[in-house]
Amino acid sequence: MQRTPLKDFVTKVGQLKAATALRMSQGGISKALKADREVYVTELDDGSFEAEEVKPFPAQTQRLAG
C-alpha cells in the first residue's frame, strides 16, 4: 500500500473518478484541492481506495492581529 498525495491522484485519474473512488462528490475533491489540504490516498489490497488528511495536533487556531 502506497500513500499518494490527493493532487497527484487526481492528476492521474481525474476529479470525477477520484471522487467516485473515495465515495464523495467531485465538488468535494475540487474544494479540497483549492484549499491545498494535505490529503493522501491509499489503494487497499482489494483495489478500493481510502483517504486521510494530515492536520496539526492539537488543532492550531489562527490568532487575529491585535
UniProtKB/TrEMBL annotation:
Matching Gene3D superfamilies: CRO Repressor (3.30.240.10)
GO biological processes: regulation of DNA-templated transcription
Any one Pfam family match given in the protein's UniProt record, by short name: Cro
Origin: domain of life: Bacteria
Classification via InterPro entries: Cro-like, Cro_sf, Lambda_DNA-bd_dom_sf
GO molecular function, one term: DNA binding
Protein name: Cro/Cl family transcriptional regulator
Organism encoding this protein: Pseudomonas frederiksbergensis
